[in-house]
TrEMBL record:
The protein, known as: Hexosyltransferase
Biological processes per GO annotation: cell wall organization; pectin biosynthetic process
Entry-linked Pfam families: Glyco_transf_8 (PF01501)
Organism, as annotated: Gossypium anomalum
Keywords carried by this UniProt record: Cell wall biogenesis/degradation, Glycosyltransferase, Golgi apparatus, Membrane, Transferase, Transmembrane, Transmembrane helix
Membrane association type: Single-pass type II membrane protein
Pathway assigned in UniProt: Glycan metabolism; pectin biosynthesis
Protein family per UniProt: Belongs to the glycosyltransferase 8 family.
Amino acid sequence: MAIAVRSSRGGGSGGVGAGFRSLFSYRIFISALFSLLFIVTVSVLLTSRPPPTHHHSRLPSGANAYMHRTFLALNSDPLKTRLDLIYKQANDHITLVKTYAAYARKLKLENSKQLKMFDDLAKNFSDLTSKPSLFETDGNLDEDVLRQFEKEVKDRVKFARLMVAESKENYDNQLKIQKLKDTIFSVSESLGKAKKNGALASSIAAKSIPKSLHCLAMRLVEERISHPEKYKEESPKAEFEDPSLYHYAVFSDNVIAVSVVVRSVVKNAEEPWKHVFHVVTDRMNVAAMKVWFRMRPVEGGAHLEVKAVEDYSFLNSSYAPVLRQIESAKKQRFNLEKTTENVTKDGSNMKLKNPESMSMLNHLRFYLPEMYPKLHKILLLDDDVVVQKDLTGLWKIDLAGKVNGAVETCFGSFRRFSHYLNFTHPLIKERFNPKACAWAYGMNIFDLDAWRREKCTETYEEWQNLNEDRTLWKLDALPPGLITFYSLTKSLDKSWHVLGLGYNPSISMDEINNAAVIHYNGNMKPWLDIAMNQYKNLWTKYVDNDMEFVQMCNFGV
């Protein structure tokens, strides 16, 4: 029994040992098998050679490609890698050059030098890449040959890049658009600055007193002082208040300009003895003006009186609001300080710097009925006009109850009321039409009876008081004129009054020759050096060159 049991235990132990030995032998077999497969795989990879073509070879993809590249790098020739890079660079630039050449053809530049250069360069690249094999007979690369090949490719690449850089601007639309925008902006900025500087220079030239004009005034005053007996005051003539004659009002401090206006009227008048001129100037120039017309009397029997603003006693600061504004310290500070710093910033502020805007002579036109109480009609002429025809026809025009006869200046959307008045202000917005047509000062026939009936002077003063702070319009005579004579102005035929000879070089000579009055409004006055030559002789032919002081003062006419 005992023997049996011992035998069974011994037999169990031997079975377990045999199992372990079998498992160990199986593992050894599997390991040997994998080792053998690995060695075979490595041997195949190391003994295999990549295809001889480099620049267009097809490579495996994915994980196989990665392994392939890894083992290839271990076994590759560095010269072949370098050759691959050279081929790639050459092919890239061939594509680039061909693209620019194709775009040049699209733009129809077949005959251009640029297109020919692109085509030649692409052909040179193609010829270079299709050269015979660089390999030696044993399949290896010759480094000297490769170096020469690389140098040729680099030279062509450099030339291609230079050509593309020079031509890119012509083919890159975005670059062209941006450069054009930059150019437009730059030119616009320069133009804006040039306009402001030109406007400032023109304003200074226009408003400064020329040396010859100053000389003339001084010579005339000297004559008055040297020979007081010749220039005694004369009693007023009855013709000055005769309503049956043709009366003119000229308000100016420019002696030579007034003389041209008077001479041009008289020389073209059919009955000059029926014409009466009322010249008003400032206290500084009244003596010179009187001496001139005493030395050079008006021709043709016409009548002329010269007065100073101060001779009209009712024109004082308590009566005339504009005079009060002009004399106020606030207005003086605004003129001298504000406009000086702003004039170059905004060309529209130029008028604020204009001495005429700050002169009472420019606002006397609103007091004509008070200045000439016995007259029924009067023709207002600016000192920068020339009369070319007889003007008596203006007195015969039926103004249909209107006060002012004037030539309208609007065209399209230009020179409407909105250009002169501040329509953001409720007072202006409520009472006036922004599209109403503006008219011109310079030659205006006024019905003084209708003026008195419509109380135009009172209307003017009312609005001047409302514009104390200059929020309704800038300081000038035209805006209050537009307001004062709103719906009271009759439009005259444009041939009566042609404007723009002081700023517009494009006026037709036919239009000028057919005009009764031509107006040198603008900065280029005919007595200045900056006057436009094509119009200047129309003014200079009425200058009295025989007057000794004109010769002495060397007027450039």
